[in-house]
Each structure stands twice: as C-alpha cells, then as structure tokens.
Amino acid sequence: MAAAASNDPVALRDCPLIVSTDIGGDPDDAIALALAAMTEPRLALVVTADEFPDGRRSILARHLLDLLGREDVVVAAGATAGESKYWAADGLVPAGAHPWPLDLYATVATLTDPDSSAPLRWLGIGPLTDLARLLEIDSGRRNPLGLARRLRIWQMGGALEYRQPDRAEHNFRLDPKAVHTVVDRAENLTLVLSDHTFTPVIAVDPDSPIYRLLATSSIPWAQVIARHLDQWFARFHPASMLHDPLTVAALQGAFVSFDHREFRIEPDARMHLGPGRIARVSSGVDYLGFLEWVLATLRAGAPASPGQSHAATDPAPHAAAAGSESLDQTALFATHRTTPGSTSQFGQHDGLPKFRQG
After folding, report:
1. Contact status, residue 356 vs residue 86, Cβ threshold 8 Å
2. For 17, 168, 246, 259, which has the most beta carbons within 10 A of its beta carbon?
3. CB of 286 closer than 8 Å to CB of 255
4. Would you place residue 303 in the very low, low, confident or very high pLDDT band (cuts 50, 70, 90)?
C-alpha cells in the first residue's frame, strides 16, 4: 500500500489526468466531463469506454471538449465491449465528424517519462476494460512505464451493500475480468461506491436546478448536455443520478470521505467485506455541498467554491453564464429529496426505478 500522502488530491493536482468515460449513455458522464474540463487544467486524455464500433462515444467527447474550449485534450476511442445498450445522444454532433484511431498505450506513454516515478491520475467513470488492458500491456513490456505503481486511480464503481444482492454494480459487472485485473494489480485504488452515488438527492430531472440552468442556456455546450438529458428522459429513465460528477469531486478531494477497507471480489465482480484486497472506499458524502459546487461551476464555466457568489465570478470565454437558479433553491431541492416520505418523479425514495448505472 502506497503512503497516504501519495494519494493526496491537492498534492496530485499538477499530475496529468486521464478520464475514462462511457459518454453518450447516461448524461451524468457528459456533465462529469464538462466539470473536469472546467476545473482540471491538467486534463490531458479522454478514453471512451465500452465504445461502439463506429466510435460514436469518442466523437461526442471530442465535440463537447471543443465546445468547452479544450481542444488541447486528446480523445482516444477505447475497447468495444459489446455491452453498449444505452445511447441517448443522437444528433448532438455535426455531420461528418469521425473518430481518430490511436494506440492507447502509446498515447498514455506520451504523458510521462518511462524513467520517471511521477504519478498519473486516472478517473474511471465507466467499465474498467481499458485500464485493465493498460496494466496488462505495461507489465509485459521490457521497459514498462510502471503504471500499476504510478497510476492514482479514482473509479466510480463497486458496492458493498448493493441494492440488488444477486449481481454486481453496473460498471463492475460490465467487465468482471477487468475488475479483477485492476484490483489485483493497481497499488493506488480509490473506489466511489454505488452505496453513496445511487441516491435521489443527486438526481437531475426536469425539475432540478441543474437541468433548468442547462436548458435555459444559450451556450452551445450547455445546449448539448440539455438535449442529451432530454433524450435520456424520453428513452430510458426520468432522471440521471450524478454518480460520475461525484467521482470528479472525489478526485479533487471534495465532498466525499474515504476509509481503507478490506474486501474480496467474487468472479462476477460482486464485492464483500472480508479478507482479500485493501483499497480506499467511499464512506460518506456532503451531498448539499456537492450540488452547490456542480451548479456554481456549470454556471461560471470555471472552478467554483461551494457557496461563492456567482455574481462575483468572472466567466471564462466558454462560460455558461446563464440561468438564474440560486444555491438556496438547490438546497431546498435537495432537502425535499431527503425528507422522509417525500416524492418526486421517482415516487417514494425506497421505490426508485432501476437506473442504468450505479
């Protein structure tokens, strides 16, 4: 186990960041990518996980990053796992866009010096297929990059008390073999568990302040995410839980607390406490602070501190700077979602529909 200081998010802020996302399904991936683009100057590479054969996830990621002014970020289409059951992003990318084939390992190698021991950050908000492949390839190289040791991994996935005990959490069950590879090899693994992300408190639906901010904006990137949410609501579920944006916040050391826990992984990637592997796993969340941060950051289009006055923010050229939802309204919305017996489009809190992720 690496020293705790090596996983300090503040100390790691200057390290290159790689994001692995199955963008194009549940729109929380697109919101997470927008937040990372706005708040992570060292965002260097986006890998699209569970990719379609036509590379449509990578095309969408490239378009959204361009709209956010992050043409500097490289996008690489990841592995096609054949599990792509959800797509809610038709017509969001201009005609004629196409993916650029890249060798993922070679692309990661450009971010670092093989003789260096400097860390790289990995934010996983999709299945773990590409991360497992990188670890396997690196271990077989004559002059490896040392990714198992150098990667500081924050992964949305896994659950110790999953709501469906007979199967693993979504990101884990998409590729159980990859989960075993990563858990066995990675030396610096942090898991943001579905136990803490699957909650109506952080769900975005047509009544939420976050959705209304995006839907009333005239800024192109905000319009893309709003239309993405509309397709998701119409085709799949009445809301999108912010699993992946919460993992972005965790990467930055905000709103999520962690404990070191020992657990074992079943062949199907279900997690259970007990002798096995040790990793940092989420143990608690400041949900209201998190929602305030998301709303303030999307409004400003630049890094925001919870509770800051949006009127005092100097928007960047690519800023949203639209919408009039206040943080007080966000607090009221979250309070309603956490009030025993309260209802929304979900119905009672213990009767939530089965969401795609988490």
Report:
1. yes
2. 246
3. yes
4. low
Distance CA 259, CA 66 (A): 37
- Phi/psi at 218 (nearest 5 deg)? -100, 5
Neighbours of 146 (CB within 10 A): 18
Q: Give the Å distances, CA to CA, from 131 to 178, 212, 328.
A: 8, 35, 40
Q: How far from each other are the two terminal CA atoms of the chain, in whole angstroms?
A: 27
For tokens 């609501």, what's the residue?
233
The pLDDT value given to residue 332: 55
Tokens at 251, concatenated:
């990467």
Q: How far is CA 70 from the centre of its chain?
A: 17
Instruction: Spell out a b/e string for 260-272, using b for 16 or more CB atoms within 10 Å of the CB, else e.
Output: ebebebeeebbbe
Q: What single string gives the DSSP state of each residue in 211-259? A: HHHHHT--SHHHHHHHHHHHHHHHHT-S-EE-HHHHHHHHHTT-SEEEE
CB-CB neighbours of 90 under 10 Å = 12
| Pairing status of strand 120-125 against strand 43-48 | unpaired
Which H or E run contains 340? none
Write the DSSP symbol of residue 208: S
CB 297 within 8 A of CB 68: no
CA dist 151 → 108, 112, 301, 320 (Å): 11, 11, 28, 32
pLDDT at 287: 97
User: What is the bridge-based pairing of β-strands 277-285 and 256-265?
Assistant: antiparallel
Class of residue 235 by CB neighbours under 10 A (exposed 0-12, middle 13-18, buried 19+): exposed
Nearest-5° angle of CA 95, CA 71, CA 214? 70
Taking only the tens place, the pLDDT of each residue in 152-194 is 999 999 999 888 888 999 999 999 999 999 999 999 999 999 9
Query: Positive or negative CA dihedral for 32, 37, 42, 45?
Result: positive
CA distance 101 to 199: 37
279 phi and psi angles, rounded to 5 deg: -150, 165
Instruction: Report how far residue 333's alpha carbon sits from residue 201's, in angstroms, rounded to the nearest whole number.
Output: 8
Structure tokens at 226: 């709003």
What the block records as the tokens of 298 is 């999307």
